[in-house]
Every structure is written in C-alpha cells, then in structure tokens.
C-alpha cells in the first residue's frame, strides 16, 4: 500500500501538468463563443466560465475531506500506511493549484461581463450592481478571490503566518456567496444551481462537523498548516 501511495506521489509533476492542460483547454472552450459572435455568445461564455469557476472551487474544498476520509478508511482497513492524516499531506498541494484555476475562470467571467455586458462603462456597471442583487454579490465574490489569490503567494503566505489561516477560511464564505450569486442569477423555474448547492452544502456541513469533533478531541486539523 505504501508503495502505491509513493507511486501516486511520484506522479505529482505529471498530474500537475495535466491539471494545467485541462484548465487551458476548458478556458479556450469557455471563451470560444467570443470568436464566432452569435445571439447567445454572452450567455454561453458566462455560463461556462461561471460554472467552471464553481466546479474548481468545490474541487479545491473537497481536498481536505478527501484526505480525512482516506485516513479513516485506511485505519478501518488496518492498512500499514495511510492511516495518518499526514500520509496524505501531498494532496494539499493540489488545493492551491485547483483554487487558482477557479480564480482564473472567475476572472474570465468578470472580464466577459465587463466587456460584453457593460462595455467597460463604470456608471453602467454600478447601476447594474444596484439594480440586480446577484451582480453586487458577484463583485463581492471577486474581491474575496483577489484577496485569496494574492495571499496564496508563498512569500506573502510566510509573512502573514497565523493570519493567513484566518484569511483562507473565508473560502467557505466565498462558496456561500457564489452559490447565492448562481441561485439569484437563474431565471424562475431553472434549477441548474441545485446540484452545486447540495455538494457545497455537504462540504460546509462536513467542515463544521469535523471542526466540532476535532475541538472536542483537542486536535485541530483543517489541512491548512500542512502547506507550510
Ligand atoms: C465581477 C463579478 C461578477 C459578475 C459581474 C457576474 C455576472 C454574472 C451574470 C450577468 C450572470 C448571468 C449570465 C446570463 O445572463 O446568463 C452570471 C451568472 C453566473 N455567475 Fe457570475 N458574476 C460575477 C462573479 C461570479 C463568480 C466569482 C462566480 C463563480 C466563482 C460566478 C458564477 C456564476 C454562475 C455559476 C452563473 C450562472 C451561469 C448561468 O446559469 O448562466 N460569477 N454572473
């Protein structure tokens, strides 16, 4: 078992490159409708970039539960290796990468809106934000993305020390904002947001339950410290 986990660890450079290639292909696919303008180019770009940003955000948040459940399963199976959370620390490296991919799609989404909907007219953008609540929620989400992206730079991360952990917990607040944005952006009767709300809700419940359990056991691990 140890050998299999070590093997997966050794494949990390390949997996990381693969992730980057997938992100690049999806980004090209998301902005492709801009090259052949049609009546629904804007909606398609917004839909693809917005949902990809959300999917990668959910994936990055799933890394910590995955680590935890792998260690629980390996303990249950009495495996010689993989029972400790630390045995799965290598998975943490993917969280930042996947989070940054999510931020890239959020940026594409934001630029598409500014370019195609309000054509870079600030007054227009402000007016729209005041008129439609999901727009200002979107702006709030982008602000959180910017803070998380800047503070994920290793040098800044080291300078911030403990504050970094507190800042990065706001990723759960970001998830709530994005889900609310998606829900409010949908037309009446459209339930495309539902699977994302269910998965996001489960991840939030998981985070709360394990934070309580860990506090009770005087042990706290949310996977954040393992990055340092
Ligand atoms: C600058 C901030 C943002 C603005 C101005 C904005 C604007 C919009 C607009 C106008 C729509 C509706 C598109 C349509 O008419 O079909 C939309 C939908 C959506 N947005 Fe955003 N958004 C922002 C931030 C975000 C972020 C940060 C995310 C995700 C991480 C996101 C995810 C989504 C999703 C999933 C949809 C639903 C897509 C659909 O069903 O068409 N948005 N957004």
Topology, please?
Blueprint: H1 2-10, H2 12-31, H3 41-76, H4 92-117, H5 122-131, H6 133-150, H7 154-160, H8 162-168, H9 170-185, H10 194-216
Helix pairs in contact: 2-3, 2-4, 3-4, 3-9, 3-10, 4-6, 5-6, 6-9, 9-10
Low-confidence stretches: none
Work out the strand percent.
under 5%
Oligomer: single chain
End-to-end C-alpha gap: 26 Å
Ligand identities: protoporphyrin IX containing FE
Order of helices and strands: HHHHHHHHHH
Strands, total number: 0
Q: Strand pairing plus helix content: what structural class?
A: mainly alpha
* Mean residue pLDDT: 93
Shape: globular
Q: What's the gyration radius in Å?
A: 19 Å
Supply the number of helical segments: 10
Q: In percent, how helical is the residue content? A: over 70%
* Total discrete domains: 1
Reported for the largest beta sheet, the result is: none
What do you see in this structure?
There is one protein chain. This protein is mostly helical. The protein has one domain (2-34, 41-227). Helices cover 75% and strands 0% of the residues. It is built from ten helices and no strands. Helix 5 (122-131) crosses helix 6. The two termini are 26 Å apart. The model has no long low-confidence stretch (mean pLDDT 93). Bound molecules: protoporphyrin IX containing FE (HEM). Protoporphyrin IX containing FE binds next to helix 3, helix 4, helix 6 and helix 9. Residues 43, 46-47, 50-51, 53-54, 57, 106, 109-110, 113, 117, 135, 138-139, 141-142, 145, 178, 181-182, 185-186, 192 line the site of protoporphyrin IX containing FE. This is Ferric reductase-like transmembrane domain-containing protein. It is found in: Membrane. Keywords: Heme, Iron, Membrane, Metal-binding, Transmembrane, Transmembrane helix, Transport.
């Amino acid at each position: 078992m140890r050998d299999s986990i070590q093997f997966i660890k050794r494949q990390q450079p390949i997996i990381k490159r693969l992730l980057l290639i997938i992100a690049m292909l999806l980004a090209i696919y998301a902005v492709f409708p801009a090259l052949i303008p049609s009546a629904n180019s804007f909606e398609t770009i917004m839909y693809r970039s917005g949902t990809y940003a959300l999917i990668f955000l959910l994936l990055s948040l799933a890394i910590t539960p995955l680590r935890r459940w792998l260690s629980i399963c390996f303990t249950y199976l009495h495996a010689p290796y993989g029972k400790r959370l630390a045995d799965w620390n290598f998975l943490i490296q993917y969280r930042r990468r996947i989070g940054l991919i999510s931020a890239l799609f959020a940026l594409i989404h934001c630029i598409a809106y500014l370019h195609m909907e309000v054509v870079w007219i600030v007054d227009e953008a402000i007016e729209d934000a005041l008129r439609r609540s999901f727009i200002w929620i979107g702006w709030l989400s982008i602000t959180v993305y910017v803070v998380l992206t800047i503070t994920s730079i290793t040098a800044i991360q080291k300078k911030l020390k403990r504050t970094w952990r507190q800042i990065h917990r706001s990723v759960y607040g970001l998830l709530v904002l994005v889900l609310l944005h998606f829900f409010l952006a949908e037309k009446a009767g459209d339930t495309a947001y539902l699977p994302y709300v269910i998965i996001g809700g489960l991840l939030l419940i998981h985070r709360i339950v394990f934070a309580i359990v860990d506090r009770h056991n005087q042990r706290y691990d949310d996977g954040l410290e393992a990055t340092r």
